[in-house]
Amino acid sequence: MIASNELVLGDQPKQIKCPFCSNSTVSTVTFKNGYISYITCFLVLLIFGIMASLLLIPVIMIITRTLIHKCSACNEDIGGDGKVFHVLGVKDSMMSFKIGEFGVILTKRIVIGILLLILTLGVLWYRIIDLPTSQWMDYHQHHNPNITITDTWTDYLEKCAKQKIFQNLQFQQICYQKYIDRTIVDWKGYAIRVEDNQQSLLKFLHHSVNILVKMDPAESEFHPDLLLTADSEIASELSSEIEKLERGSEFIFTAIIKSIGDFQNIRHFHLLNITQLESYIEIPPHLHQQSRYGNSQQFLASSTD
Length: 305
Hints:
Blueprint: E1 7-8, E2 15-17, E3 24-26, E4 28-32, H1 35-63, E5 66-70, E6 77-80, E7 83-85, E8 90-91, E9 94-99, E10 102-107, H2 108-129, H3 133-143, E11 147-148, H4 153-160, H5 162-167, H6 169-179, E12 183-196, E13 209-214, E14 226-230, H7 232-237, H8 239-244, E15 249-259, E16 267-280, H9 296-302
Parallel strand pairs: 1-6, 11-12, 14-16
Antiparallel strand pairs: 2-3, 4-5, 5-6, 7-8, 9-10, 12-13, 12-15, 13-14, 15-16
Helix pairs in contact: 1-2
Protein name: LITAF domain-containing protein
Keywords: Membrane, Transmembrane, Transmembrane helix
Pfam families: zf-LITAF-like
């Protein structure tokens, strides 16, 4: 790896006096992969998996390699071509940053390496905490068993309607203690919108599948009643059923209640199973800020009157 104080000798062999052995010699040009190459390869492996990485990593190793000048006599690295990546032609340079009263000077190579390392650690952390559902359920069942309840959606609304918990914090606390991360429900609903991120990088930022659901009776005329989410394992297992869902499709779902929601946040359920039924209802496109319904907050408030 070329340090910022080493010689910039271009991309052709050069006549030079070696600073290590003091011999006058013509340098030997070769290529090396440094820490940026290996961090990038590890990041690609985390994001795309083994099969895609087998194709991508050889390409990455080529385009991220660095040109090195070696002494022909002692074989020490004596310089480079002044580029972070030789193939891409990204030139290395000094970059200065001011943090309060302190100044920091780094090379572009180091800055790129730090950013890649932060991104890699973020993806790795996501991978670690995003345990497969089966493992998570085994742990959760052992330490905090879930209970499948017989409460219907109507029963749930009688206790935990948004307007009720908004007006009375005691109801909110009761609903939280009774339902959140403790109960599994088997209910029917209608699909408003299905977001399938299984083939997208968005699955690392969000859930693999998001399903906006309209219930019967609906709590709001204009808004989804709850959000079903699935991790990559569950989404893969249920992919055939999820692919069938269209706007208005009726389905039965089994899910763990994760949040009771409020006027700013939708109810959140973790999907465990789903089965499409034959019935359909007419559902307009999902409300958003620029939709034909106008201001979403205004309609959210009016829908609770």
